[in-house]
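Form 7-S
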Amino acid sequence: MGICLSTTKVSGSNSGSNNNNANHHRNANKEEAKRRHNRHARNDTTHKHQHQHQERAKNYQQLKTKQHQKTNSRRQTGVIPCGKRTDFGYDKDFDRRYTIGKLLGHGQFGYTYVATDKANGDRVAVKKIEKNKMILPIAVEDVKREVKILQALAGHENVVKFYNAFEDDNYVYIAMELCEGGELLDRILAKKDSRYTEKDAAVVVRQMLRVAAECHLHGLVHRDMKPENFLFKSAKEDSSLKATDFGLSDFIKPGKKFQDIVGSAYYVAPEVLKRKSGPESDVWSIGVITYILLCGRRPFWDKTEDGIFKEVQHNSHF
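Output:
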């Protein structure tokens, strides 16, 4: 609030009153000056705090930038991926044994090729996994486990045959049976209305159940059963079906449960989403595939992965 600083002209007969008024104005002026000083002091303190805050934020940002630069520098100069430092103990003579051919497909860590055995001319499938992408020890363990699983299931008629594992300085190579009949998914889509007859579906489902039974017999859970992970040995209509891609598979002890969420959204079991899954999750996935074979569509659908998960949980007795 503004205070008038001009004096009022009064007559001499009111000099006492004038003095009182003058004193009043002087006191008022002092009070106002004091209030202004206090306001300025508060403003200065506020500005000072704001400035200090800005300085701290600036220093923090500079520190983060330096740390980021150091991290990038370390990445560029140096930390060797775990895969590069690991001797897997596999044979080292891949190039002497095989010739790499055309690309079949690729995943997160590597590529799958057709390769030819130089000794007999047989064609095989080779999964070529880059060691540089195995940053953490868990990635190394995943590769070792997949090889161990293929060895454990070797000889089963509905699992791709495992031939050997190799390595060099840059890659791990897994040589397997070549299946040229395409994915089960492609066969489904090629059917009229994308449906199998009950008789034909029974043949397919029986083979998938054999795979699940063999896995569970060895204390294994596949954890990613879906039409894309089943291949036909040949293009013949009555070709045998082979399970492949055991990258998410794992061993489990009786009575124990997995607590992580893995698999493909449309085929994942409710127990997986509840973080307490076991061998039964493979049976659920086969049930979903059976539904697709007979009905030509998925039992659960949504635009988002979260939406699919909700559908699975709300219809766990489909």
